[in-house]
Specification:
Blueprint: H1 3-16, E1 25-29, H2 35-43, E2 48-51, H3 54-67, E3 72-75, H4 84-90, E4 93-97, H5 100-113, E5 118-122, H6 136-148, E6 153-157, H7 166-179, E7 184-186, H8 193-198, E8 203-206, H9 208-211
Parallel strand pairs: 1-2, 1-8, 2-3, 3-4, 4-5, 5-6, 6-7
């Protein structure tokens, strides 16, 4: 598919769900993609991208930002505390705030640097041992803790289990967000973003449907 195909499908999903046109932001997931593919999407005018690893993004995006104005970069992969400073310097939005130690590190960096990326709390809706994210039962308290640290928590993020109905997880995330007064929902990927939009997604993360299958690396 092309970028145009995906944006057209997003627009139709917004209309079908009775959503305001343009209310869903497409994050083009550029992790492990050759620079030529990323440059092609940038040349089409798209400016919102997602990366999984701080180190990979550091090697890719400073040069792209010199060439293309208005890039907005989202960190959508798990973050180690020792990479927090680098993430602060590079990313506009971080989707993977998931534990008290990281929240405290972010709060300290925000005080020190006088600014802070927007934050999404990652919720492990499937309660999977191998996945990052706060458990649903702990989400309310963790969101309150992050807000008490003056972190700009604007949304929640989830990655549903591959073998379960994604809509159930999207609905759970939306419920947690609503009762905590959290505005944004980062949910939905290449295979299920239309379903996510129907259930309130404000940000969808689409990679392979735009760029093709990822390179090995």
């Amino acid at each position: 598919m092309s970028l145009h195909d995906i944006t057209s499908r997003i627009a139709k999903a917004e209309t079908d769900a009775g959503r305001t046109p343009g209310s869903v932001e497409l994050i083009a997931v550029s992790k492990v993609q050759p620079d030529a593919r990323v440059a092609a999407v940038l040349s089409e005018g798209h400016r919102c991208f997602g990366e999984n690893r701080v180190q990979e993004a550091e090697g890719k995006w400073p040069a792209f930002r010199q060439e293309f104005d208005g890039v907005k970069l989202h960190l959508i992969g798990p973050l180690q505390s020792n990479k927090a400073r680098s993430a602060f310097e590079l990313f506009d939005v971080i989707h993977t705030l998931d534990r008290p130690k990281l929240a405290q590190t972010f709060a300290r960096l925000a005080q020190e640097m006088g600014r802070c990326p927007d934050m999404f709390v990652q919720v492990n809706t499937g309660e999977e041992d191998q996945k990052a994210g706060v458990l649903p039962a702990d989400a309310d308290d963790f969101i309150k803790e992050c807000l008490s640290l003056d972190l700009p928590v604007c949304g929640l993020m989830c990655i549903p289990p591959v073998d379960e109905e994604a809509a159930l997880h999207f609905a759970l995330l939306a419920k947690i967000a609503a009762r905590n007064g959290v505005r944004d929902l980062s949910m939905g990927m290449s295979s299920d973003f239309e379903k996510a939009i129907a259930l309130g997604a404000t940000h969808v993360r689409v990679g392979s449907a735009i760029f093709g299958e990822r390179s090995v690396g």
